Amino acid sequence: MRSVSRRGLVAGAAAVVSALVLPGEAVARPLPSHREMRGMWIATVANRDWPSVAGLTAAQQREELIAYLDTAVKRKLTAVILQVRPTADALWPSPYEPWAQYLTGVQGQDPGWDPLGTAVKEAHRRGLELHAWFNPYRVANHTDPSRLAPGHPARVHPDWVLPYGGKLYYNPGLPEVRRFVQDAMLDAVRRYDIDAVHWDDYFYPYPVAGQTFADDDAYRRYGAGFADKAAWRRDNTDRLVHETAARIKKIKPRVRFGISPFGVWRNQATDPAGSATTAGVQTYDDLHADTRKWVREGWIDYICPQVYWNIGFAAADYAALVPWWDGVVRGTGVDLYIGEALYKAGDPAQPAPWQDPAELSRHLTFAHGCRQVRGHVFFSGKEVATDATGAMARVVADHYA
What we know:
The protein is α/β, with parallel strands linked by helices. It has 14 helices and eleven strands. The chain is globular.
């Protein structure tokens, strides 16, 4: 996620234990089968939203999480999208990967409770959907494998990992990597009553000037028959999406699969089928993610493009991109939600429209005229809660009465 469908603290361990959900435990879910999406992302990577810092007690972590769920209810939202696999680790007791470092400050250290299990139970208790947000390939926000937990799969299989742009990534070109990351993510589908599997915009990494993603060996092994490396990379990403979609439906047919890509598939100057934009990044070309294809093939249940620009922004106008996506999903049965940059509201580094607390409300008003738009998701939880400029309150007052 860049901040870049079909369908006070609690004391005492008892408060934590009472909220735990055992894997497979049935939970009452009085949720309609289809309703407007009013969502917020809760980012755990680098403690962006939750937990506020690493090393809180289990009770403190739980209290902060519950506060976010209560905020969602207060803001009249219908769903939370909780990041549960931020850096090839887990916010549940996974047999595949270590506990996330953002809980205790030490990757692999048991936090003493089950955050994902608790989140599912408490979200459903409040009538909220819980979408489990996974990042498929990011291993670490550094390039030193020795800093990973002992026994981490990336240390056991160093040939799976590539450094790039100051980070470590699993190599998407290796079939064994694709199978492993699917297994790791789908463990949560099997064990918990989540409503959706959710991915963000990170597939192949965003380009870094002067650096090369060194997957030549994998291309030599597996790239025969492709016109070039870019086509092979896109096929690798297609395989990850298609295979994951099929496996989700086999495990739990009711669980939805949604993806939230960078908002520009391709510029019109690059491809006549693209949007009337001049964006510096195009998912098809730069991230090797053919997001339009996934919709047209019906591999996913919803798409939530991150249309993180104001109305009238020259390079990527909200008022140009939302109708373009509306046209992409039309007739496919895939639901369209719009990712909204709440974090930009009031930021002095952003263009003038973002200084007006009404900008986001204007987004929803505009999108209401696009018949395929089924809702909006706000980045991210911290801004939904603090709402320093009142932009979120304005959205609620104008659209969620």
